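Category: protein sequence paired with discrete backbone structure
Discipline: computational structural biology
Format: plain text, a pair of labelled lines
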Amino acid sequence: MKHFTSRILMISPDKFRNNELTISDNSFQSRVPENISISDKAISEFESLKESISNRGINVHSISDDSEFDTPDAVFPNNWISFHHPNRAVLYPMYALNRRFERKSSTLKKLSDQGIKIDIIKDYSHFENDDKYLEGTGSIVLDRHNKFAYCSLSRRSDYDLLNIFCSQMNYKPIIFNSVYQSKPIYHTNVMMSICNNFSIICLDSIEDEKQKKDIITNLKNSNLEIIDIKIDQMCSFLGNCIQLVDTKSNPILVMSSRAYNAINNSQLKIIEKHTDVIFSDIKTIEDNGGGSARCMIAEIF
């Protein structure tokens, strides 16, 4: 089984804006929304990132957000769906009311029209009725090779749901707490990423020393070299990168320009030892959405 993919889903930010329903717990989302329409700027950034990825031999299934619903964060599809080998998918419960409409899009039909027929094997969305949430591979950083599911608990990442997911999908949960500005970090994939032979993680955001030690031990036992990033690098979305492969299985790490510019020389040497890197400027999406390149990509297996 392939643990990294050369096929991804990206959804155009046609209705993008600073979502007022997510800002309360997303410390990485701008508190001062731009007072002009930003969708055109977001679409331009999206297209540039998509082109950079496609030019490196990765198959991008790009879909327009043409639903009737108010979906300002549709550009972040990895929160409502995750894909699993072979052509299976899981649906997730979402914290923000207007983000739940993203599941009602025609995305799966459009993928089917493009030759990718997906079987929904689990649907956890009904847990929204119990005010319990688990937002896909935002909440859960998967080590698909070693079958670990890393999860930093927050309002959007429920302990019980994480354990249900792990039990049903055959993953071992690695549960911890990470904090920024005295709040739980809203999504795990902001502060860590599992790559082909290394992990990028902000250990400074984990205050509990036992949790920190256990995560370090688990990453090392998984034969993953640890790149420990600082808080300011995390705030530049360096942890929100994603490992992909091209059609010839060459590793490609995708991140934003802001993230790339935050890497120091010693960190870059480790990264380039294992993978090529591509990056693109997505500042409007980062500032107003509180997410970066990894959030914009749903891997298809």
